[in-house]
Amino acid sequence: MKYVLVTGGVVSGLGKGVTASSIGLLLQACGLRVTSIKIDPYLNTDAGTMSPFEHGEVFVLDDGGEVDLDLGNYERFLDSTLTRDNNLTTGKIYQSVIDKERKGDYLGRTVQVVPHITDAIQEWIERVANVPVDGKEGPPDVCVIELGGTIGDIESMPFIEALGQFSYKVGPGNFCLVHVSLVPVLSVVGEQKTKPTQHSVRELRSLGLTPNILACRSTKALEENVKTKLSQFCHVPEENIVTLYDVPNIWHVPLLLRDQKAHGAILKELNLLGKAVEADVTEWTERTKIYDSLQDPVRIAMVGKYTGLTDSYLSVLKALLHASVACHKKLVVEWVAASDLEEITAHETPDVHKAAWDLLKGADGILVPGGFGDRGVQGKILATKYARENQVPFLGICLGMQLAVVEFARSILGYKDANSTEFEPETSSPCVIFMPEGSTTHMGGTMRLGSRRTHFQVPDCKSAKLYGNAKYVDERHRHRYEVNPDMISEIENAGLSFVGKDGTGRRMEIVELQNHPYFVGVQFHPEFKSRPGKPSALFLGLIAAASGCLEAVLQASGKINKVLINGMANGTAMGKFYQNGNVYSNGNGLHH
C-alpha cells in the first residue's frame, strides 16, 4: 500500500480537500486504484451535530455516516463510495481507546497519547486504506490522506506525531507528503512572498514530517526565482514545487496539476512509475471545456435558511452544476433567504422583501433544500405555493418535500393549521410527524440515515422515467420527521401523488403534483450521489424543465437501454446518452 498525505500551512481554507481529490483523480487516470481518508482533529465523533454555519454542510454516506464535506469532493472526483471510517476524528480515536481501556485491553498500563492514541491512529489508517471503495475486489493501490486544519494547531498534534511514526514505519517509497501552503502577493509591492511557506515547512519538519512536494496557492503562477528560493529554503526540488493559482472553477485543478507533472513527481516518490500508465484525463478535460464555454443561462432560485454561506448547500450546488452542464446551460443560482419572503419582512424591511420576491419570480426553477429549525419555514411554504400555482419547475428536498405537503394541505385541502409537529407539536392537522424509531433525547446519529430503497408506485411518473424507468432506486437519507401516513389517501385524492414509497409502503419518499410541468418533492437527498459525469436524475429533471427540454429527456429515458438525445440545448446536436437516470456522452466529455 502506498500513501499520499496532504497537509496545509499558513492559513486554513487553501483548498486541501480539492487538492487531495485532484491528486486522487490524477492517480486514477494513471490506472491506479485510489481510496481516501479525511482526518478532522475536532473532538466531535462526527459532523452530524455541527451547524452548517460552523462547518459547512454535513455530507451523508451510503452507510449513514455523517461526515465532513471534503468526503463529498472525494466521492464526486473519484466516483467512489466511501464509508464513515474514511472520516477519522479525534472523537472517534479517543472513544475507541477509552472503550478499550474500560474493557481492560491495556492490562493495567497507563494509557497515554503516545503510544496508545498514536498507535490507534496508525492502526485505523492501515485498516481503512485496505478497504476497496470502487466496487472492485482487493485493496486499492494508493490511499490519499488529508489532514484537516493547519500545521501548528494544538488539536492536530497527536495526528502529526502518529503520521511521522507512520511514514517511518511504511518506509521510503511508500509515503509521499504534499504540503499545501500560501504564497501571498502583497498589493503594495506586487511581489510573491515566500516567508510564510518557509516558516510553515520549518514547523512541519520540526514535527517530524518532511514534505516531498510543495503545492503553493497564489493568485498567479509562481515565478522561477520564487521557486528557486522555495527549493533552497524548504529542501524540495524545484520540479516538485507546483502552483495552485486561481482558476475559474475547481474542475481545472486536476488539469493544473497534470500540466505541472505533479502526478509524475508523486509516482516517482512512491516508486509507481513502472506500474502507472500515461494519465488519461480526456473526458475530464472535455467536460471542463464545455463548462467554461456555457453561455445560455438557467436561473434557479435557492430558497434556504443558510444563504449567507454557500458551503451549507455545497452538494446541492454541485448537483445543480452537474445537471446544467449536461443540459449545456450556464447555471445562475439566485440566493433567496426564506425569511425575506415572509409578511413580517414586508412590514419591517419592504425593500428586502420586494427584492427577494423579484428574484423568486425571475427564476426559471425553484429549489427548496433540506434544513432544520423553524426559521424561514413560512417563506419556504410561500415559495412552494408560488411554484405550484404558477407552473414553475420545483424540486423540494427533505424538509422541502415535507413543506410541499404542508402547503398543499393548507391551500387545497383547507387545513389552515396544517403543519409539521417539528414546528407546531400541538397542531390539529399534523401533515408531518416524528418518526416512531427516532430518539428524543440524543441528537447525534439518531436520524434515519444512509442509503434506503424507494419503490416506485406509478411506473409512468416523471421521477421513474428520469431514473430510467427503474422499479426502485437507492438514495441517501437524513431526517427525523416523515409525512403522516394517516393523511396520505386524502392528499392523493386531491391530486398530490406519492409516487415513491419505502418497502413497507407507509413511509413516503417521492411526491409529484399532477398537471404541473415539474413539481417533485423527495424525502431523500439525491444531491449526495450526483457526479460530474453522471448528474442526479431529479436535478437533471429540474434543470431540463427550467430549460424547456424536459419532454426530450423524459421521452429518451423511457426507451430501453441507451438512447441518443440530440440538441438538448441551443439546438446543438450534442450526442448525449441517457441511461439509468444519468446523462452520458459519446465523445463530449461525459462518462459512457
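the 2nd protein, sequnce then structure:
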Amino acid sequence: MAAVSSSDSDGCGAESNEANSKWLDAHYDPMANIHTFSACLALADLHGDGEYKLVVGDLGPGGQQPRLKVLKGPLVMTESPLPALPAAAATFFMEQHEPRTPALALASGPCVYVYKNLRPYFKFSLPQLPPNPLEQDLWNQAKEDQIDPLTLKEMLESIRETAEEPLSVQSLSFLQLELSEMEAFVNQHKSKSIKRQTVITTMTTLKKNLADEDAVSCLVLGTENKELLVLDPEAFTILAKMSLPSVPVFLEVSGQFDVEFRLAAACRNGNIYILRRDSKHPKYCIELSAQPVGLVRVHKILVVGSTQDSLHGFTHKGKKLWTVQMPAAILTMNLLEQHSRGLQAVMAGLANGEVRIYRDKALLNVIRTPDAVTSLCFGRYGREDNTLIMTTRGGGLIIKILKRTAVFVEGGSELGPPPAQAMKLNVPRKTRLYVDQTLREREAGTAMHRAFQTDLYLLRLRAARTYLQALESSLSPVSATAREPLKLHAMVQGLGPTFKLTLHLQNTSTARPILGLLICFLYNEALYALPRAFFKVPLLVPGLSYPLETFVESLSNKGISDIIKVLVLREGQSAPLLSAHVNMPGSEGLVAT
C-alpha cells in the first residue's frame, strides 16, 4: 500500500502472535487528534485517479472546532472548518457524466454540504417547519406591545411544557436570558418572523435505479422531527418523505429507489422500523429490550448492537434469529466486506479495547487495540483493497491491512459456542392424532382448562377431608414422622366395673432417646371415669417398650360400651404424634382400623 506507512508500531494492538495474525500493522499514531464515529468516516476515490482517500467528519477535541479532514495515507491532505458538528458523511455518484468521480456529502446541523473534487458544490437545507400557533400569537402581541416581557416568558414556558412541538430558536434563546436583558431582546426580534428548523440525525445512500457499485445514488436523511427524506441526486429535491414514531439514529437500506427498496431505521425509543417503497409509515417494527448502539445489514440479516452488551440478528420482517453476548460494552459497529472472497461480516468495537468480527453469531477474529475504538471503516484505501481504519477514544489513528492469504475460519480466534448448538434437531413429523388433538385444544381450550381446574379443586377437597377425618378419628397407632419414631399398643384387662388399661409405648429409633411426651385420654365422662386423663411420659430409651398403667371405672348400669381415644402429644404442640382407639369394656386390646 503505497499511501500508507508500513512502519511497525509498538503496542498498536497487534495480536500476541504476529505470525498467526491475519492483519499487517500499517500505521499507528496515538496523537492523530481525530475524534469521530463510524458514520462520519468514508472511503472514496475523490479525484478519479485510483487513489482512495479517507474522509473524516471530525468533531474536534471536546466537541469544539469541528472540521472536515481528508487523509491520504497517514497524513491529512486537506482540512476545512465546519459550521456545526457533523452527523454523517457519505460518498455517492450524482450523475453519469465522465469522468466518473464521486461526490462527498456531509450532514451538519440542518444542512447537507455536497463537495465535488473537494470543492463546495451545493448546500441543501431542510425545509422549515411551521411554528406553533400559540407561540406565533404571543410574539405578535409582543410586537404590538400588548404584553410585557415577563408575561411573555411565563406564557412561552407554559407552551414549552405542554405542547408537543418544540419552540423556535428565537423563543428558546429568549427563555435563557436574564430579566434585565429580555426587553432589549424583544425589541430587537419582535419584528422578525418566527422560524422553526430541524436538524439531521443520520444519513445514508440508496441506489437510484441500478445496483452497480458506481450507479447513481440518492441521499436518505433522518431528521429530528421524526421524518425520513429521500433526495434527488441531481436537483436535490425531496423525492419521498416518510414518518416515524420516533427520531431515527441509524439507517440501513437495500434495493433501488425506482424499483423496490427496504429501509431500516433504529430510533431513540428502542425500536427498529422497516419501511418499503411507497409506504409513508413503517410496515414492520422490531422491539428491542435496550437502546440500539449500532445497525449493520449483513446480506439479508439486520445485526443490531444494544446497550445490554449483545448483538442480535433479525430478519427484515422482525423475526429474531440469534443473540451473542459481548464481554464489554459496544461502542461502534460497521460492515466488513471482502469482495475477493464474497465475505460479509460485522465489526464491533468494544470498551475493553477489542474489535470483534462476527459472521452471524460465529466469531471470526479478535483484534486488540491499546485504546477503546470509537469508529471503524473497512474498504479500499490508497491502492490496498482490504484496509481496516480505526480511531480511538483518545484521538489515535490505527490502520491495518488484511493479509492476502488470510482466511477467516469460524471459531479460529476464540472458542465460541459448540457446533452442536447450531445443529437443528431431528423433530419427528406431526401425526394425524397430534394435529387433531391440537385443533381440539384450540377450539375447546377454555372448557378443557375449566374442567381441569374443577377436577383439581375436587382432588384437593377430597384430600383435605380425608386428612381431617384421620385427625378426628385418630386412626394411626404408629407415628408417621421420622423425627418421632414411636409405636403404641393398648390392652384392657378385667371384668368390670373397674378395668385396667395398659399402654405399651416404644421408641423405635436406633440411637436417639425421646423426652417431653404427653398422653391424653378422650372419653365420654357419662360412661367412664379415669383417675388421670392426662399425664407425662418418662424418658424413652431406644428399643425398650414401656408399660403405662391406669384404671378405668364404668359408670353405666345398662351395659353401654364406648371407645376411649389415646393420644400421644409433644409438649407445646396440639397435633398428636400418634393415636389409638380402645374398645371398652373387653379384653381384645387395641383395635386397628
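The CA atoms of residues 324 and 427 lie 25 Å apart. Residues 133-190 form one domain.
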